[in-house]
Amino acid sequence: MATSLREYRAKIKSTQSMKKITRAMELIAASRIIKAQQQAAAATPYARELTRAVSALATFGHVDHKLLTENPEPKRAAILVIASDRGLAGSYSSAVLKESERLIEKLRAEGKEVDMYVTGRKAEGYFRFRQRPVVQSWTGFSDRPTYADAREVGDVLTAAFLIDPEDPETGDPEREVDELHVVFTRFRSMISQTPEVIRLLPLEVVEGTEAPENGDVYPLYEFEPSATEVLEALLPKYVNHRLYFCFLQAAASELAARQQAMKNATDNAEDLIQKYTRVANQARQAGITQEISEIVGGANALADANAGSE
């Protein structure tokens, strides 16, 4: 019983140490969620005005641009998968990877070839383990994305979409992309995060020609030097900002999933500590009872021996 008691005490000690770690990770994730939500809120006014400007250009500017033009016979699609760099976040990464697999199957069933772009070490490792080619990957910013990170990714994806196969210097028919889809996790609440797919390119302008609500009036724009040149400058910014929005949503979702996972781990550690403490107490009581029984038995045997000798 003494050996068993030592084992239980060692388990209790190790579980208490693990509980401290998971509790600390839970608090860190909770504090970072607030920062991610504040970043998303701070970026909203700029995104709204940029969307209005692009909507006005696309709707009233009568401009033909490849980012706005849909290929009637798309042959190749690119997919950007936004996953996490670290684990300990429950089913966060696995859910977005499953959603990406469903999208890949759908696109291939439509007769399209698929190019993979990934962010996050989990997605990178997932496709590398299965020996599936990835055109480019980015890591190191899944829970703290910046606009510079979104711009870096957006520039690469936009360049792939704008490849001209007829250009003898930069054209590459094997790399021409007709569609770009993004698979990310949308943050809905602290307990609800859902994987989602959006088609980023060709652009689907959010506001379009819908009438404003609550008496609001869309501003009138005068484009100088021309609507074409303004659109040429605005569209990449619009793409990059939509990517930044996806990164912020994914970061908040990852942190919420990690907080929930660490909270569950902390609760489970507490349950284990209570269980091991109860079993250790039972083992200690059983040891004490056995020792008392041995002492009583020895005393009775000694008394019987003394009575027999008399």
Describe the structure.
F-type ATPases have 2 components, CF(1) - the catalytic core - and CF(0) - the membrane proton channel. CF(1) has five subunits: alpha(3), beta(3), gamma(1), delta(1), epsilon(1). CF(0) has three main subunits: a, b and c. Keywords: ATP synthesis, Cell membrane, CF(1), Coiled coil, Hydrogen ion transport, Ion transport, Membrane, Transport. It is found in: Cell membrane; Membrane. Its main location: membrane. 26% of the residues are buried. The protein has one domain (20-205, 218-263): Pyruvate Kinase, Chain: A, domain 1, CATH 3.40.1380.10. It is 59% helix and 12% strand. It contains 5 helices and 5 strands, in the order αβαβαβαββα. The chain has helices spanning 2-60, 92-109, 121-129, 147-161, 227-309, and strands at residues 76-82, 113-119, 136-138, 179-189, 192-201. It has a 5-stranded mixed beta sheet with strand order 3-2-1-4-5, with helices on both faces. The chain is elongated, with a radius of gyration of 31 Å. It is an alpha/beta fold and 310 residues long. It starts with a helix and ends with a helix.
